[in-house]
Every structure is written in structure tokens, then in C-alpha cells.
Amino acid sequence: MQPFYIFVSGGVSSGIGKGITTASIAKILQAKGFRVIPVKIDPYLNFDAGTMRPTEHGEVWVTEDGGEIDQDLGHYERFLDLIIPKENNITTGQIYWNVLGRERKGGYLGQTVEAIPHVIDEVYRRLRNIADNTQAEFVIVEIGGTVGEYQNEIYFRAARMMKTKGERVLFVHTVYLPILKHLGEMKTKPAQQSVEVLGKLGIQPDFLMCRGEKPIDEVRKRKLETFCYVPKERIISDHDIEPIYELPLILEEQDLGNKILKQLGLQPRESKLDEWKSLIQKIKNSKEKVRIGIVGKYFDIGSFYLTDSYVTVLEAIKHAAWNNSRIPEIIWIDSKEFEKDEKNLQKLKSVDALIVPGGFGEGGVEGKILAIKYARENNIPFLGLCYGLQLAVVEFARNVCGMKGANSTEVDLMTKYPVVDLLPWQKKILEESNYGATMRLGGQLIEIKKETLAHKIYGKDSVIERFRHRYEINPEYVKTLEENGFVFSGKSAKDEGIMQIGELPKHNYFIGTQAHPEFTSRPLRPNPMFDGLIKATIK
Ligand code: GLN
Q1: In this structure, are 169 and 151 located in the same domain?
Q2: Whose CA is nearest to atom 5 of ligand 1?
Q3: pTM to 2 decimals?
Q4: What sign does the dihedral 21-325-534-334 (CA atoms) show?
Q5: How confident is the model at residue 497 (pLDDT cuts 50, 70, 90)?
Q6: Most-buried pick from 17, 47, 300, 485 (CB within 10 A)?
């Protein structure tokens, strides 16, 4: 079947939640029985998100096939419960890379290579390939950034071109309607202007998704209809809600799915969203709180706090908490606070459980180690993610095995006890400063030891989780650590000897993994490590 392409663009402001809107549109079409596949376009020149700082771009999403890409793909996976390959994140860097690669091989046969048509054709080719490879009926493409930016113009032009060439294309434009505080009124003008900018690129939106603090009312819908030439029925309220997973239901209440089908000349269909509805009900009925402390360091930019750096961890906590009828309350703790004054550790008294998430470099490390020590000594349920496991091993080596000054060589190259060290094959990579996409990445098999906490929570002998790291627990110290009571309950199958899960049997719940189990957590299927953490706070 010739696929349908739905382009989701944004106007007025960035960061208005286009990713959730895109995921929700895909979700309702999936619930109608269509094969959907979402794509995210990022207009920056980086080849992928792997080399970007978390405070720059938010968290990096790791795909099963080892991609380091934009976090919106994480929303898509969570909403759709699909495994989405890395090729579904297109960056301008990749587009130009391919165009130049072809040019160097003489692929353009003497032509002048230009933005139009060659760059646009490459975008078209990428999208068509995705449709072919996945046999999707709907390819839902989110164009990053805001319309009118210089950076993303080629993508609007490519979308327009695809329609010209006879592809079946639908345009959904997401706009923001601010409520001005001193007026108390929702304004449509910025939205109108963004539709005009879209018009200059030859695009008339089929649907307007109206983001705002409150639902858009009839008066303002009529205004948008008059000024933007989008019929009122296709102006959809996409207002703030909590939890975000309710959005597909809010959109379906407005019959968005069938309106899309009608616009494309398809027959209406019923949506199967029963399980999803039960989940939302369960969340809304939950009363008891669970307080989870996250000790991290990627929080501050300027005078603002950026929780985007840990968005997947946050979502994984929510899924697990909801599964146990708990409302999660997140306590953000900057590890540097503990370094300034150890008395600040008292803050941990108020948490039910502690998570030390992934990280890089030496910043905030000593604070994290202090927090881990506190959790270990005070029997606070603890989950260490990647760096979190490595630092738990450092803490255990120092304070239980008596290896004073033990460290990861990522932090201290000269440490007497390098209990965490580079993976052997990573040494050469770092010597060559070859940083892009060179970590141990993506889905890897973990073999789980019987009669351990890991085996109890996963309930099986092996599992695939996603990884993103250069360092590992130094195999030379494994014996000493185990003799002192640390249990390595998950090991790699392929790369002989990589310790992938570690735990302390005497503790209520103390477990860490070299993986990032947050990436496989789904609203209806919480990851067992997170689920176990919440359960430990209840027992
Ligand atoms: N910096 C550590 C490593 O590279 C941990 C990485 C992480 O937490 N993702 O191994």
C-alpha cells in the first residue's frame, strides 16, 4: 500500500510538547489497527544526539540497535510500545553527509549539487526508505523546531515537494495559545502568524493542534477558522494534562482519529484503547505517594533547572509507581550539595528510595558516592543506573573492602584501586579522540544468576537491556568485591566478563546495573528494576 505521511510541525514556540502530540496521533491511529511508524527530524548539524551535553539537548535516547538519538523517540516508543530503529531520527547532519558522500562518488553526474532539489530529494528518499523498510501504512513525521526558522526550512519544502509528487500527505500544525496573565485571556494571534509563515512555504495545515494551559473555546476556534482557513472541526484542543499519557484519549474524545481518516478519504474505524483507559483510571485513583530521590548533576542551565536531562528515568519511575498504585513524587538532589556540606545528606531522610542515574566525568561524583553510602548504611532502597552501579562499586570498595582511594579511572587515572576501568577496546578509541557513536551501545544480553534479587525481579535467566558506556567494573577486582559480599548477578553473554548487574543481598533493595533499564520501561509494562524499587518501599 502507498503509505500516508503525516507531517507534524510547530509554531509560536519550541518546547510546546510536539513530541507528545505526535506520539498521541500515532497512538490513536495504531489503536485503529494501522501500522504506524513515527519519525523525528532534528534540524541541527550534529550527526546524532550522542555527542551533545544533556543540559544542551536533554537526555539522549538509546535505541535497541545502538543509536544515540533525540528523546522524542523515547516518547514514541513509550506511547506505541514499538522498537524504533535509529534511522527514524533524521538530522540535517545526516542529510548533508549522504548528499556529500554521493557527490564525492560522482553520484550526481556533473550536476551542480544544490539545496533544492538535491538536499530535499535526500529527505524524501530517507522518508520513503523508512516507509518501505517498515511497510508502514502511516509515517508520522515530526519536524523539529518552529516554522519560520532558517534551519528547518528544507524539511517543510521536502514535505511540500512530496505532496506535489503525488504522495499522500497530511499537515498537522501544533500551535501555542498563550494566556496573558494581565489580561487573563487566551490569545490566537501568534498562532495565526505561524500559520501564515507556513503558508509562505506553500503549506496549508489540515489540522491545528491548539496547545495551551486550558482547552481552547468556541470563540477562539472560530477566530482561528476565519484567519487560518482551517474548518472548526479540524481545530483540536491539545491542552495541558497530567499525566501526559491521557492525551490520546483527549484527542479521541474530539474524534481526531476519524477526522484524519476522513480527510485522507478513508472510512472511520473504532479505536481499541481499553487497556490505556484502565491505566489512566488507575493513575487517577491512586492516592498514596512514594518519594523518590534522584541524585544527579545535569540540572542547571543559567538560573533554570532542567529536568529534561533525566526524562526517561522519570518516566520509568512513573510507570513503576503507577503499577503499584502510587503517585511518584520526585526529589531532585544535586550531588554537589553533599560535597559542599555532608550535613545535607539529611535531605535523604525524607526519601523512600534513591536512584543514582547515569553520568559522565568527575563532576558531582563524590556527592553521589556519599549518597550511595548513606543508602547502603541506612537500608534505603537503591537503584544505580550505569554510572550509578559503577559508583556503588567504588563506594563498596572504599568503605567495605578497605581500598582507600578506590575510584573509576574516568575520575582518577592514578588511583591505587581502579575498580572501574575502561573497556579494553575503548582505550584506542579515546586515544584517537573518536567520540561519536563509539561507546558500547544498544541492546545487549544479560545472563542472570539464579537465586539473586535480579533473578527474582526479572523472573527469567536472561534479558536484553540497552547500554551506553565506555567503562566497566574492572574484572581484576570482581573476586575481592564478591568475597566482601557484593554479588554480581548479571553478566554479559557475548563480551566475556562484563559485570552487568550487581547487588547487596543483605540490604532491603540495593541493586545497580551497567545498563539503562529505563529505556525499556513502558506505561503498561514497567521495567522490573524500577518496579522492584517501588515494591521495596511498600514492603
Ligand atoms: N561514564 C560511565 C561510562 O562511560 C557511565 C556511563 C553512563 O552512565 N551512561 O561507563
Answers
A1: yes
A2: 387
A3: 0.92
A4: positive
A5: confident
A6: 17
Whole-angstrom Cα distance, residue 456 to residue 512? 14
Catalytic residue check, 270? no
Tell me what pLDDT residue 113 has: 95
CA 331, CA 30: separation in Å to the nearest integer?
35
Domain around 183: 4-278
**Closest atom of ligand 1 relative to the 420 alpha carbon:** 10
Instruction: Provide the strand spans (E) within 144-241.
Output: 168-176, 179-180, 185-186, 207-212, 235-239
Residues 119 and 192 in one domain: yes
Domain final residue, candidates 278, 311, 337: 278
Q: 254 with 321, same domain? A: no
Residue 302: per-residue pLDDT: 53
pLDDT exceeds cutoff 80 at 303: no
> How many structural domains is the chain composed of?
2
Catalytic residue at 185? Answer: no
Q: How far is the CA of 224 from the centre of ligand 1 (A)?
A: 48
Q: Report pLDDT for 495.
A: 62
Asked if 443 contacts 64 with a C-beta cutoff of 8 angstroms, the reply is yes
Q: Which of 386, 465, 469, 503 is catalytic?
A: 386
Tens of pLDDT, residues 304-352 = 555 677 889 999 999 999 999 999 999 988 888 888 888 888 889 999 9
With cut-offs at 50, 70 and 90, classify the pLDDT of residue 53. Answer: confident
Q: Is 518 a catalytic residue?
A: yes
Distance 68 CA to ligand 1 centre (A): 14
C-alpha 364: how far from its chain's center?
23
CB 176 within 8 A of CB 41: no
Q: Is the pLDDT of residue 70 over 90?
A: no
The predicted structure's pLDDT at residue 298: 66
- The last residue of one of the domains, among 243, 278, 313, is 278
The arithmetic mean of pLDDT across residues 138-164, rounded, is 95
- Compute the average pLDDT of residues 145-155: 94
Any atom of ligand 1 within 6 Å of the Cβ of 359: yes
Is the preceding peptide bond at 243 cis, omega within 30 degrees of 0? yes
Does the C-beta of 368 come closer than 6 Å to ligand 1?
Answer: no
Going from the Cα of 230 to the center of ligand 1, the distance in angstroms, rounded, reads 48
CB of 466 within 6 A of ligand 1: the answer is no
Atom of ligand 1 nearest to the CA of 516: 9
Question: Does any ligand 1 atom lie closer than 6 A to the CB of residue 468?
Answer: yes
User: CATH number of the domain that 518 lies in?
Assistant: 3.40.50.880
